[in-house]
Amino acid sequence: MMFRLLLFALLLQSAHSQLHHVQGINHPGAGGPDIGSIGIARGLGGDGLGMESDHSDGLVDPDGRKIIAPLKKHTQRREEQLKEENEKIRQILEASKKLTETRSSPLSTWLWTLFGCSLLISCGIVPAFILPANASEYFHSTEGKSKLNLLLSFAVGSLLGDVFLHLLPETFAAPDADMVQIGLYTIAGLVSCLIVEKVVANTEDSQHQVCAVMNLIGNLIDNFTHGLAIGAAYQMGVKSGLLVTFAILLHEIPHEVSDFAILLRADYNRGDAIKAQLLTATGGVLGACSALFMHTDALASSGVSWILPFTAGGFINIALVQILPELMEETRPRQNTLQALLIIAGVCTMGALNTLLH
């Protein structure tokens, strides 16, 4: 009986020591993990906070317990949502851009553009109505030749002003302007005119004819770029289109006077000069229609890189190589003074118009 009581006391003491050991592990001051804290942490990881259990989303305290940082995961999710929203906005903008580029211009835009082109055409034939009826016979006389040389002097000045104060500055101002490329295109325009003159022109009269034809070609290209600008401007609105049309008309009026002087020098009568000017004006209509069909002014911006400097080179050749040497043959002091003044007047006119328009 005593043996059984002793055995029961030993078993009771052993059970009590094991229970005390388990309580020590669960105590917060002990070195082991807190089972309650782990359970709470797991509960937070499974609810709406959506925390992960790895160390990338939280920190571990010195006791080995994880301190979860919920703001980090929330920030990551917010960034993903913003990326998705930006992608949707980009897709919507691309679809809107394609729709804008493919839709046709309204009828009102076409009518306003044609109105601007008609003003450009009328500007080209206005100088014909201020010339005398017998202009071709008059400019063959001694007095008429002196008057024609004065018009040609103004033509030299306006051509040089157009080149160095309008065409080349506009080309250099383009966002993607390449200085070397612009120089090469300008030289190409100058040399092309020289080659044509050397191959075709054998006499003084033929040289005058070639000069007139090359000037008409240069005007045709120049009017094409003007038409592009008019068409693109009217797509932006009637007010923008009218402002651009007015600016081009102011720029073209002195230039058209120069064109008529060059045509008269080549023995064009008034009727033939009008027909030639109407022919070059079709370049403006083609440019405007191209801008409306494409529904963009991309052609205008791409044409700046080569059309304008090439045209500038041709105008330099016409002014300095084909017209100015003929004016230098004048020996009368008064006539030389008037020619020099008109050359300066042509440059100043183009400079004043460009300053006013800008």
Explain briefly what this protein structure is.
By secondary structure, this protein is mostly helical.
- End-to-end separation in angstroms reads 123 Å
Using only CA atoms, what is the Rg?
42 Å
The helix tally amounts to 13
- Kindly state the number of beta strands: 2
Strand order of the largest sheet: 1-2
Largest sheet features = 2 strands, antiparallel
Low-confidence runs of at least 5 consecutive residues: 19-57
The helix/strand series, from N terminus to C terminus, equals HHEEHHHHHHHHHHH
Give the structural class. Answer: mainly alpha
* Average of pLDDT: 75
Shape annotation: elongated
Strand content: under 5%
Helix content: over 70%
Tally of distinct domains? 1
GO cellular component, one term: membrane
Subcellular location: Membrane
Pfam family, one: Zip
InterPro entries: ZIP (IPR003689)
Topology readout:
Blueprint: H1 2-26, H2 35-46, E1 58-60, E2 66-68, H3 70-102, H4 107-125, H5 135-138, H6 142-172, H7 179-200, H8 204-236, H9 238-265, H10 270-294, H11 298-304, H12 307-327, H13 333-357
Antiparallel strand pairs: 1-2
Describe this structure in words.
By secondary structure, the chain is mostly helical. The chain has one domain (106-357). The protein has helices at 2-26, 35-46, 70-102, 107-125, 135-138, 142-172, 179-200, 204-236, 238-265, 270-294, 298-304, 307-327, 333-357, and strands at residues 58-60, 66-68. It has a two-stranded antiparallel ribbon. It is elongated and about 110 Å long. The termini are far apart. The model is unreliable at 19-57 (pLDDT under 50).
